[in-house]
Design goal:
Rossmann fold; GDXG_lipolytic_enzyme; about 30% helix; alpha/beta; signal; hydrolase activity; 8-stranded mixed beta sheet; hydrolase; about 325 residues; 10 strands
Length: about 325
């Protein structure tokens, strides 16, 4: 059965013939992108430049593919592929953008997707439901739906359905990690048992939180006089109001033997990697592979800029080549 759409209740159903998708109006408050982040960072790092999203001749892009539907609402992805047909099927990396769960665009990972395609990978950058449209766990469900869409349509695009990777930056890294670690697990994955696996063969976490319940994660939400943090807004309340949800949304909770190998790429801003060291220790105790690369003297959004993006790409390709047997 092809997974062509997903209803709010998590049930698969076909797209209605002739049905059209309705995209929400652009949100004027959604101002998180590389162009707006650059002026904030260039003062401290004058050597940086925004990573290029220009499509080179050796890459082709298939844009605006609808991968899941909720009523009349369709979510879309862009697919980046080598321009020349490869000898073998391609591993694919599904990217989840950052933005504090309430902002951002899938184009954030276009520069990295382009460079992966030049290195012999397919890459998909996805849009997902932000907190203002649908709170947790909507974004996580969307990421798993994208994995299932890629696996279902793999043959059409020369993709290997047995080599699917989830990756993301910041909030997207948390979403990608949780989606990959909880795939096919009842009851947290509503599509478990759908006939199309949401499992991935590796995860790349770029400066994303692994444990919402640490003191570092919670300290921004302990003062009721202050507005809730983006994490609290996405999770539907502060930790004291719903601790179970904060635990459930923490990727560290799903460490187990046989889990996908993970690469952690971190900035010099430790608050964005809450729980990482503990998670890596737990993984190693259970025989799971966890690798860490820290980029010194970098801002949280380092992957938006050169020269740091190239280091991120090189580390990702090296890790995935090893884990996927290339």
């Amino acid at each position: 059965m092809k997974l062509r759409c997903l209803l709010v209740l998590g049930l698969a159903a076909p797209l209605a013939a002739g049905a059209t998708c309705v995209d929400p109006a652009p949100d004027p408050n959604n101002t998180y992108d590389a162009a707006r982040t650059y002026p904030k960072q260039v003062r401290k790092y004058p050597f940086i430049r925004i990573a290029s999203a220009a499509v080179p001749e050796d890459v082709r892009v298939v844009r605006d593919l609808s991968y899941v539907r909720y009523g009349s609402r369709c979510l879309k992805l862009d697919l980046y592929l080598p321009a020349r047909a490869p000898r073998d099927t391609l591993p694919v990396v599904v990217f989840v953008h950052g933005g504090g769960w309430n902002a951002g665009y899938r184009t954030e990972f276009a520069p990295m997707a382009l460079r992966l395609a030049q290195r012999g990978y397919a890459a998909a950058t996805i849009s997902y439901r932000l907190a203002g449209e649908a709170p947790y766990p909507a974004a996580v469900d969307d990421a798993r739906a994208a994995v299932r869409w890629v696996r279902t349509h793999a043959a059409r695009y020369g993709i290997d359905p047995a080599r699917v990777v989830l990756a993301g930056g910041s909030a997207g890294a948390q979403v990608a990690s949780l989606a990959g670690l909880s795939a096919d697990l009842h009851p947290i994955d509503p599509q478990a048992g759908s006939g199309v696996s949401g499992a991935v063969q590796a995860i790349v976490n770029i400066d994303g939180v692994l444990d919402f319940t640490t003191e570092e994660s919670r300290r921004h939400d302990t003062d009721p006089a202050k507005a809730p943090s983006p994490a609290a807004a996405w999770l539907g309340g502060r930790y004291a109001e719903n601790p179970g949800r904060w635990h459930e949304a923490s990727p560290i909770r799903y460490v187990r033997r046989g889990m996908p190998p993970m690469l952690f790429i971190g900035s010099a801003q430790s608050r964005f990697q809450s729980g990482r060291d503990d998670m890596v220790a737990r993984m190693r105790a259970r025989g799971a592979t966890g690798r860490v690369l820290l980029l010194p003297d970098t801002p949280h959004t380092f992957w938006l800029f050169d020269p740091w993006l190239q280091s991120t790409v090189d580390a990702t390709v090296g890790f995935l080549d090893e884990m996927l047997g290339r």
